[in-house]
């Protein structure tokens, strides 16, 4: 019975009925209040009904975007610091479960697993479970060490040290789940760069129709730059790119 109620709660029909029940008392109440100012009941009633329908449609649209996902991301912060020959890649996320019995958080990165040390700092007692590697990514689950149910908020914090050169001179994050806020931050040694100009890029996935949007920005004095994106589009990649000098580029190109 509990499983049936959970599945029912996740359907659009249930959400439509729930929103209507939540708002039906608001319609006559608001109409009565407005009619007291205008002396006319019909016009306020029509206006309130239209506003209520807009609110219901918007909420259903947001819910529709979340269907099929185990959780959404309320906030995600990704940090990369290059240390000439190795780099740090850290992230922390705040998520909200959309299902019962959520026990893991999936992640991946482009690097060699044998040269990578991944430490999970949050939740307490969480651990990394590597998945089979069948391409250029290191794929793993963060085992959360407890069960989260619908509406529960959870936090994941992972620090990674990679003892090799970067595969690419950029930091990117592809949005694969509904996300409220995404933050990307880099810290780079300016003496290894051609220029302190970096590029912020928004790239649609091959399945999406859209153009690449590029904006140039400058690094701060300490070689850092942070980019905050509100409501990033799903299936889009958000990327910060930079240009190493010719000597460092030659080293990168020599990598297998």
Main sheet characteristics: 6 strands, mixed
Unreliable stretches: 1-12, 60-66
CATH topology of the largest domain: Immunoglobulin-like
Q: What is the CATH architecture descriptor of the largest domain?
A: Sandwich
Radius of gyration using CA atoms only: 24 Å
Q: What general outline do the C-alpha atoms trace?
A: globular
Distance between the termini: 55 Å
Strand arrangement, largest sheet? 4-7-2-1-9-12
Estimate the strand proportion.
35-45%
**DSSP E strands, number:** 13
The helix/strand class is alpha+beta
CATH level 1 class label of the largest domain: Mainly Beta
Question: What is the H/E string?
Answer: HHHHEEEEEEEEEEEEEH
Describe the structure.
- The chain has 256 residues and is of the alpha+beta class.
- The protein has two domains: 2-66, no CATH class; 71-253, Immunoglobulin-like (Sandwich), CATH 2.60.40.
- 26% of the residues lie in helices and 41% in strands.
- The chain has helices spanning 2-9, 12-23, 26-38, 42-66, 246-253, and strands at 71-82, 87-97, 102-110, 116-122, 127-130, 137-148, 153-162, 170-174, 181-187, 197-204, 213-218, 224-230, 236-241.
- A six-stranded mixed β-sheet has the order 4-7-2-1-9-12, with no helix packed on it. It has a four-stranded antiparallel β-sheet with strand order 8-13-10-11, with no helix packed on it. A three-stranded antiparallel β-sheet has the order 3-6-5, with no helix packed on it.
- Helix 2 packs antiparallel against helix 4 and helix 3 runs antiparallel to helix 4 (42-66).
- The model is unreliable at 1-12 and 60-66 (pLDDT under 50).
């Amino acid at each position: 019975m509990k499983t049936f109620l959970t599945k029912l709660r996740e359907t659009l029909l249930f959400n439509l009925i729930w929103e209507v029940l939540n708002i039906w008392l608001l319609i006559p109440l608001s109409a009565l209040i407005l009619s007291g100012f205008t002396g006319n009941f019909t016009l306020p009633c029509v206006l309130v009904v239209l506003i209520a329908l807009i609110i219901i449609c918007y909420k259903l649209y947001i819910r529709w975007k979340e269907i099929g996902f185990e959780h959404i991301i309320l906030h995600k912060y990704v940090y990369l610091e290059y240390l000439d020959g190795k780099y740090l890649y850290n992230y922390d996320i705040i998520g909200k479960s959309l299902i019962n019995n959520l026990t893991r958080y999936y992640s991946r990165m482009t690097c060699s697993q044998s040269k990578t040390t991944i430490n999970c700092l949050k939740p307490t007692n969480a651990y990394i479970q590597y998945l089979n590697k069948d391409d250029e990514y290191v794929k793993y689950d963060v085992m959360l060490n407890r069960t989260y149910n619908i509406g529960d908020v959870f936090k994941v914090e992972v620090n990674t040290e990679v003892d090799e050169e970067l595969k690419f001179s950029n930091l990117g994050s592809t949005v694969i789940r509904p996300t409220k806020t995404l933050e990307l931050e880099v810290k780079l040694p300016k003496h290894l760069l051609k220029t302190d100009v970096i590029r912020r890029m928004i790239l649609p996935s091959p399945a999406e129709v859209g153009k690449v949007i590029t904006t140039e920005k400058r690094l701060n004095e300490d070689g850092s730059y942070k980019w905050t994106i509100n409501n990033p589009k799903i299936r889009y990649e958000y990327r910060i790119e930079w240009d190493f000098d010719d000597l460092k580029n030659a080293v990168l190109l020599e990598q297998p």
